[in-house]
Amino acid sequence: MRHVIIQCLLCGSLTFGIWTALSFIYLCHNYVSDWPKETQEATSVWSLDKKLQQIILHGSGTRPKPRVRVKRPNRDETKERGTFLKLAKKFNYTDPNLVHGFFEYGFNAVVSTSLGRERLVPDTRDKMCHRKHYPVSLPTASIVICFHNEEFNALFRTVSSVINLTPHHVLEEIILVDDMSEFDDLKEKLDHHLEMFRGKIKLIRNQKREGLIRARLIGASRASGDVLVFLDSHCEVNRVWLEPLLYAISKDRKMVVCPVIDVIDSTTLEYRPSPLVRGAFDWYLQFKWDNVFSYELDGPEGLTRPIRSPAMAGGIFAIRRHYFNEIGQYDKGMDLWGGENLELSLRIWMCGGQIFILPCSRVGHITKQLFSHSSGVIRAMTYNSLRLAHVWLDEYKEQVFLRRPGLRFIPYGNISERVELRKRLGCKSFQWYLDTIFPELEPSKSS
């Protein structure tokens, strides 16, 4: 009887493994088969990954339509894309290392390992950006990068790209915050390889898992630069990426700026340029990318003109350190991550600041393919969104509950400190935000 049970268990495990592998192969095959062919026109070749950037088209009628300008790839970029497409066809999707990498890290760790600890990415800036010059005297920057169980090479490429492409006189430090990682290569091995950057790196290791929000606060508390620049741990900065951000902040201490976030494909790790978009969100409090209206790109600056953004993605932005502290940093009552970017965006706009995306600053970012969120992450995102709604949306929080009635009965902790912060800063109403900053977010007429 015992042998029969063991055989049944083995058969069940084998069947589950086969179905998992087949499901993953199907997923990856569909993902690759959806890529544009090399013979297609440039607009499809250089469009954003559909799974990452689903641009919202607002209404019709009198609103100006977005200006579409196609940046045609140069010969080197076309050649590079061809190389990556050929590479994709050679992927062995039954390779257990590839499957493990996707489930462990959310992207192709096999390719990441083959790329190594640094590489040169294509310059995706508009040609007009090449003619811009920035003063030598700029504020100094502390780059804060938090990570938890990140793939070693992706993390190291983030660090090495910052070191290699940032003028040393403005790079005060890189602050790495290890949020209780468990992987061995992020311990002694990482310490050993970071020795080459001695003098520019501060490595902080949290003694317990804090989550992205509190980990960033820990990193910011150790910073000494004039400007805080937050990066995700799977980025690669581009040429002249930091100077535009620092220059804009030097002219206005209450300006918060973001680069254009280019796409690093999660399967091939190909670096692709992103179109000009702005950050937005919907009544589900989900961040989205939105079209830039044509009038925002008019004038002599053209495609290099700063783009006013109602919200920011949150993973990559720069803010003056003292201003970050002055406006209340992050909401310390929030858990893990999720919603903190929208909360900070609303607070900046409603309390006297402004957010711009700078087209002449480019940073690549891997959008991880997460197969599921843990129940803890889902709870944190809901909890954080409720704190945002009850502090900042005023009567418009009913628009959120109209779409998700169950949220009315979920606890969201003590928000008295954040309500008091809003009063102390003399912040404007959410109605002002809708009228002035984001009129495209139209409330539902039914209630």
Automatic annotation (TrEMBL):
<dbReference type="Pfam" id="PF00535">
    <property type="entry name" value="Glycos_transf_2"/>
</dbReference>
<keyword id="KW-0735">Signal-anchor</keyword>
<keyword id="KW-1133">Transmembrane helix</keyword>
<keyword id="KW-0812">Transmembrane</keyword>
<dbReference type="InterPro" id="IPR029044">
    <property type="entry name" value="Nucleotide-diphossugar_trans"/>
</dbReference>
<protein>
    <submittedName>
        <fullName>Inactive polypeptide N-acetylgalactosaminyltransferase-like protein 5</fullName>
    </submittedName>
</protein>
<keyword id="KW-1015">Disulfide bond</keyword>
<dbReference type="InterPro" id="IPR001173">
    <property type="entry name" value="Glyco_trans_2-like"/>
</dbReference>
<feature type="domain" description="Glycosyltransferase 2-like">
    <location>
        <begin position="142"/>
        <end position="322"/>
    </location>
</feature>
<comment type="similarity">
    <text>Belongs to the glycosyltransferase 2 family. GalNAc-T subfamily.</text>
</comment>
<dbReference type="GO" id="GO:0005794">
    <property type="term" value="C:Golgi apparatus"/>
</dbReference>
<keyword id="KW-0472">Membrane</keyword>
<dbReference type="GO" id="GO:0007286">
    <property type="term" value="P:spermatid development"/>
</dbReference>
<dbReference type="InterPro" id="IPR045885">
    <property type="entry name" value="GalNAc-T"/>
</dbReference>
<keyword id="KW-0325">Glycoprotein</keyword>
<keyword id="KW-0464">Manganese</keyword>
